[in-house]
Amino acid sequence: MDRGSGKHGLAAGVAARPSRPDWTIDQGWSNYTAEEHATWRTLFERQTALLPGRACEAFVQGMRALPIDAARIPDFRALSEVLRARTGWQVVAVPGLVPDEVFFEHLANRRFPAGHFIRRPHELDYLEEPDVFHDVFGHVPMLMHPAIADYLQAYGEGGLRAQRLGRLPMLARVYWTTIEFGLVREAGGLRLYGAGIASSRTETVFALDDDSPHRVAFDLPRVMRTRYRIDDFQEIYFVVRDLAELLELARIDFAPLYEQVAAQPELAPGELDPADTLLHRGSGRYHRERAARG
Ligand SMILES: [Fe+2]
Q: In which family does this protein belong, per the annotation (predicted)?
C-alpha cells in the first residue's frame, strides 16, 4: 500500500538537503524516461478504473478539470496554472520528504510540495516516500475544492504553531485521518477523499468495500487522541459529514484543545471509544489475521 506523507518530517529521514532553503527543485519534466511515464500510466489506469462510485464528487471534478491523464507524468507548471486560477494553489517539486517546518511553510502559502520521482515498477503497491503518483494523483485533485484549499492552508499555519507548542503529533493525527485517509458521506454512500486511499489500489478497496475496518464519524478531539498505523491499512477510517466540516476545522483554535486532549488517555489504532458514532462496526478480520501471522 501507498503510505503517503503522513510522516513528513525529519523523523522519517529526509533526502539530502537541496540548495534552495525551501527545498524546492526543478521538476525536470523532460528528464522522465519512457519507462517512468509507463509506470505512471499503469498506476493511473488501474486506479482510475477503481474510482467510480468510490471517489467523492470533488475528487472526480478536480481530476477532470486538471491537465492529468494516463499518457504522461503531469507537468507541475501546467497543473499550477489551472490550480492557481481555481483556488490559488500551486504544485512545487521536492526531492522527497522535507522537514516539517518546510512542509508547513509551503502549505501556509498555498504551495503543495510534491515528490518529483516516480516509484519503480517492482514497488507499485508499496513505497515509503510519497512519489509523484501519490502526491499528484492523490492530493492535487482535492486542492481544486475551496474547502480543502482553505483547510490545507490552515493546517500549514497550524503546523507551525503546533511545533512551537510541542503538539505536533496531535495535529499530525488530524492530517492523517482527513487529508490522507479521510472518507466523506455523499448521497450514494461513503466516498474517499484522502490521498493515501485515492492513490492506493489495495487501500481503496479495503477502506470502502471491506468488512474489516471500523468506519466512525469524524470527531476532532477523538482523532487527536488516536494513534495511527503508518505501515499497514488503517483499522478505523474517520468519516466527515461533508467537506465543509473541514472548513470548520480550519477556523478552530487548536491551542486550548491540545491541553484538553492531552489530559485524556490515548486510543490505540483500532480502539473504539464509547462516545463514537459508529457508521460501520468492523469485523477486525484483516488485522487479526495479520497479527496471528506475526
Ligand atoms: Fe500524502
A: Belongs to the biopterin-dependent aromatic amino acid hydroxylase family.
